[in-house]
Specification:
mainly alpha; 0% strand; extended
């Protein structure tokens, strides 16, 4: 009984670590430039947010310099997280019952995500030094709006899964 409880806790921890890493990857993707045919400043992410902050010309130059100076290192870190996630998906596809392999792969994702989060924190701190208090407040409100939309989508999907589970247990 005790061993079964420990195994359940390990599985929950592994799943939680993988989900946290996935959330970090999603957040990193969201903060990137808009993709596809979306005009700059009109799509999701950092570009739209910067446009909505009404930066002065001097602020735009400073923020652009911060982003350019950190572009290569943060791209490398995002790629590292993506590679670690791909490796975790591979382990889950081939040997999901191998707890040691799952743990190692999930830990690699978490470690890569930590480094990305630290780098993003540095960029955010540098940008905060450029923004006015009003612009920071507006930025925070835009981020909260995104989080609310993301949470609503997540709850909707969870509700769909819960309904599917219930319909297939009867």
């Amino acid at each position: 009984m005790q061993q079964a409880r420990k195994n359940m806790m390990r599985r929950k921890f592994t799943l939680a670590a993988a989900l946290c890493a996935l959330l970090l990857v999603a957040a990193a993707a969201w903060s990137g430039a808009p993709g596809g045919d979306v005009p700059a400043g009109k799509g999701p992410g950092l570009t739209r947010m910067l446009t909505e902050l009404d930066l002065s010309a001097a602020q735009k130059r400073e923020v652009a310099g911060i982003l350019k100076a950190n572009r290569d290192s943060t791209k490398a870190l995002r790629d590292s997280v993506k590679s670690a996630m791909d490796a975790l998906r591979g382990v889950m596809a081939k040997t999901p019952g191998d707890e040691a392999a799952v743990r190692a792969a999930a830990k690699a994702v978490a470690d890569a995500a930590v480094e990305l989060a630290v780098a993003r924190g540095r960029v955010k701190a540098a940008m905060d030094a450029v923004l006015t208090p009003e612009q920071r407040a507006k930025r925070d409100a835009l981020r909260e709006e995104f989080r609310d939309k993301w949470k609503a989508r997540r709850l909707e999907r969870q509700g769909e899964l819960d309904a599917w589970i219930e319909s297939n247990l009867s």
